[in-house]
Write a structure and sequence with these properties.
Elements lengths: L9 H27 L1 H8 L5 H14 L4 H14 L2 H20 L4 H4 L2 H31 L5 H29 L2 H27 L6 H4 L4 H4 L3 H8 L1 H31 L5 H28 L2 H26 L2 H29 L2 H20 L2 H12 L4 H20 L9
Helix pairs in contact: 1-5, 1-7, 1-8, 1-9, 1-13, 2-3, 2-9, 3-18, 4-5, 4-7, 4-17, 5-7, 5-9, 7-8, 7-16, 7-17, 8-9, 8-14, 8-16, 12-17, 13-14, 13-16, 13-17, 13-18, 13-19, 14-16, 15-16, 15-19, 16-17
């Protein structure tokens, strides 16, 4: 029985979805593990005289590792739009697995001195390059295989895989914090988390070599190889569309990085929770994130994208300050779960909506490049810097609510971009 535009049966379609999602799982897992173990990494890779400076340096490397993402977006976008979505995805998961394995084997500051943070940065740069093509490529591949009335739910599954990666990272952090002593966790326990991810990535590599290419890309024939570079065409014909997706992704990634990259450490310091309780509270909020993603996919398949997008942004703006108040004022496990879950209700839907925008705004020949460039610019400038900027805002203002104001301002910018730049009617561009 035909199930997708490519004529795949259900088994073939599930294979495409599985191959797309496993890399997204590893990408988010890697990022979250870094955030969860930021305090330990600060101790292991930087001098211990100033704990705050070491933590800020650790978050800075997280952000610096994403500076290369726009460059990676051009690279993987070119491959994806010229040679195929599958080819780009095989390359991204191969690079991701190698850099993650290296991460788990790095020497510490006590062993090699200043070389340790330098090697830490190199691994983050390689991870950033791989990530620049990962989620974009996975979303595009699944969207182009999916029936037109199930695209929202299809891309929601890919994004839920990211949520599952976040939950798994929280679970691994929780288990390691419970099973190992603080000394064991700092000495070698954190390494296990990265080695596990690299092995899963190798499974993803095998799966991606066995899936069919996107039917939309195949339908182009040899046209992609005869036309000018995708990046040049995107900059010439899709400037306004690039801006809309960039601003949207800035808001979505800011909230996402805030939730899973910054709040675990924030819960320990400002929320006064133990590391194990902070991991558990964050993990529960990630479950809410996954449910929100699925709900967002269902809504997009039933209602206009523009209407759903505006509703999600308004909800995020309203929830930002109350969510942080719950975390800070309560100082309890229940308050931490409630505050994070309030944000997660809207953030899950906003993440998957960004992928659907690529179908609405970019034609097939530049879809990979346009989406990758816009989303990775946003992540490099706003999303990945969220932990560092949030910690700096608190240090500068003395207010633990300053990150919430940051979320509110960026969300307002995204709302303006959607209102002015997103068409009311949902039609695939040509």
């Amino acid at each position: 029985m035909s199930y997708s535009p490519a004529g795949l049966d259900r088994r073939g379609y599930r294979r495409v979805v599985g191959a797309a999602t496993i890399g997204t799982f590893v990408e988010v897992y890697d990022l979250l593990v870094y955030g969860y173990f930021a305090s330990i990494l600060a101790e292991q890779f930087f001098p211990r005289q100033d704990a705050t400076a070491a933590l800020l340096s650790t978050f800075a490397i997280l952000a610096l590792g994403s500076i290369v993402r726009p460059l990676g977006a051009i690279l993987f976008g070119h491959v994806g739009d010229r040679f195929g979505r599958r080819t780009a995805l095989v390359g991204s998961v191969l690079l991701m697995s190698g850099s993650t394995m290296a991460f788990g084997l790095l020497p510490t500051y006590a062993s090699v001195g200043i070389l340790a943070p330098a090697l830490l940065l190199v691994c983050r740069v390689l991870q950033g390059l791989s990530a620049s093509g990962e989620l974009t490529g996975a979303n595009v591949l699944v969207l182009e295989h999916a029936p037109s009335d199930r695209r929202g739910r299809a891309v929601a599954i890919v994004n839920v895989a990211g949520n599952l990666g976040a939950f798994t990272a929280a679970a691994v952090g929780f288990v390691l914090a419970r099973v190992l002593s603080p000394e064991q966790l700092a000495a070698w326990g954190w390494r296990l988390a990265f080695v596990i991810a690299s092995l899963i990535g190798l499974v993803g590599l095998y799966m991606r070599t066995r899936v069919l290419e996107s039917p939309a890309f195949v339908a182009l024939g040899d046209k992609p190889r005869r036309e000018r570079a995708p990046i040049l065409r995107a900059l010439r014909v899709a400037k306004r569309r690039l801006l809309v997706v960039t601003v949207w992704t800035a808001a979505a990634s800011l909230g996402g990085y805030m939730l899973v990259g910054f709040l675990p450490s924030y819960l320990i310091r400002a929320g006064r929770l133990s590391p194990a309780d902070a991991f558990a509270a964050n993990g529960l909020s990630v479950l809410v994130l996954g449910l929100s993603t699925l709900l967002g996919g269902y809504l997009v398949d039933r209602y206009p994208v523009r209407r759903v997008a505006i509703g999600v942004l308004v909800g995020t703006a309203i929830a930002a300050v109350p969510a942080f108040l719950l975390i800070v004022r309560s100082g309890t496990f229940a308050g931490a779960v409630a505050g994070q879950s309030l944000l997660a209700v809207f953030l899950g839907a906003s993440g998957m909506l960004g992928a659907v925008l690529s179908m609405v705004l970019f034609p097939v020949p530049i879809r990979f490049t346009g989406t990758a460039l816009a989303s990775n610019l946003a992540v490099a400038l706003i999303g990945s810097t969220a932990p560092y900027v949030s910690a700096s805002l608190i240090a500068a203002t003395g207010s633990p609510l300053s990150p919430a104001i940051y979320v509110l301002v960026v969300t307002a910018g995204a709302l303006l971009a959607v209102v002015l730049g997103l068409p009311a009617r949902q039609e695939e561009p040509t």
